[in-house]
Amino acid sequence: MRVEPPVIVSSDPASFPHSVLRDRHPAIVERVLRAHPYPPEVRTELQLLVQEVRVEPLRADAHDAAAWAAWGAGFWGQSWFDVPFLFAENLFYRRLLEAVGYYGAGAWRGIDPFGPQKASDAPTPQELEALAALEGLPEAEQEAALVRAAVWGNRADLGFKLVAGHVEQVDELLVDDGKRMWELVGGGTVIVVADNAGRELLPDLVLIDFLLRTGRAARVELHVKPAPYFVSDALTADVLDELRRFPAGSPIGGRLTAALRQGTLQLYSHSFYCAPLTFHDAAPELAGRFAAAELTILKGDLNYRRLVGDRMWPSSTPFAEVSGYFPGPVAALRTVKSDVVTGLAAGAERSLPASWRTSGAFALVQVRG
Ligand SMILES: O=P(O)(O)OC[C@H]1O[C@](O)(CO)[C@@H](O)[C@@H]1O
Questions:
Q1: Ligand 1 centroid to 336 CA: how many Å?
Q2: Domain named Damage-control phosphatase ARMT1-like metal-binding: which ranges (predicted)?
Q3: Which of 23, 107, 258, 276 has its CA 20 to 30 A from that of 309?
């Protein structure tokens, strides 16, 4: 049994997680304050959240106060920088929703604090056309192109771009198990666990259309977040917005809408997706879905961290080993935007630039059958 490295925390001022809590979270709050004309009491709550030194629980009347009290047991009252990074990030987004009254009884209930930002990063008509044009290619070429579009689409992440300013266009897939991914699908159910809306969700939808129209999947479940999260993560409303972006008469848009109506494409969500947990702790209902699927495709950096555990693994740790517990075949499609990496060849990282784990310039397509 491999000894697990410790869970990542944010205490080292030179570390990436520290910069997320110190720089990115205040920048996100600034954007939220600009996005909506929130009333003074909401603005005050948001400012207090940014200034908070020690992690505080949700208000006692929150619908999920008890769950969060348990997840944070042992952490409450500690510095934000000293609790696990995954917990701190999740709590930040949950507390942000509390501050803006997302679950409250008032008039701002259900208003997505990140909605305007998501809308401003919508895919262009040219991007839609380029993806639609893939249909003219031989199927093997479509398979390869769709995996690439789906993995690089993950770079279009608003929370990430906010501080990175620009993203180097290096386009290097450090591991490419794309062919193995296609070998695993044979006409059953495929689950796609979505990450970001907009320019990431578009290639995901085109991939789903390909799965369904070629019979590689009889049924697809698209898992979305139950609440606004990590700025740009996709909710049901974002999927519906995205479908409306396909021009009238677009075959892909038409097929996807029909698939939703027929139930061959099903939208699904679970509270797990906004919880500070890894897939090791997925609820039985969710784990059962993964077990029953022919393949689960996990999109994005955060889902990768949830899959292998938010730990500073040596990069040569075998991916199959750390994902072996996942209840069914799994493919992780992710641009590398945080410290967690597994499955590289020994010594491979020596030739990479110093910032390779967080620059977003590198990506992984990793599969465990
Ligand atoms: O949208 P993605 O690919 O999950 O990326 C989100 C990533 O952004 C961060 O919050 C900050 O970079 C990471 O911690 C997280 O993994």
A1: 9
A2: 21-347
A3: 23
Question: How confident is the chain (369 residues) per 10-residue block, as mean pLDDT?
Answer: 90 98 98 98 98 98 98 98 98 98 97 96 88 93 93 72 49 93 98 96 96 98 98 98 94 97 98 98 98 98 98 97 98 96 96 92 96
Residue 16 Cα to ligand 1 middle (Å): 11
Residue closest via CA to ligand 1's atom 13 equals 338
338, 355, 357: residue to mutate for ligand 1 pocket, most atoms within 8 A of CB: 338
Q: What is the 9 CA–ligand 1 centroid distance (Å)? A: 15
pTM above 0.90?
Answer: yes
Q: Where are the domains of the chain?
A: 16-113, 123-368
- The burial of 257, by beta-carbon neighbours within 10 Å (0-12 exposed, 13-18 middle, 19 or more buried), is given as middle
Measured in Å, residue 335 CA sits from the centre of ligand 1 at: 10
Classified by CATH at the fold level, domain 123-368 comes out as Rossmann fold (3.40.50)
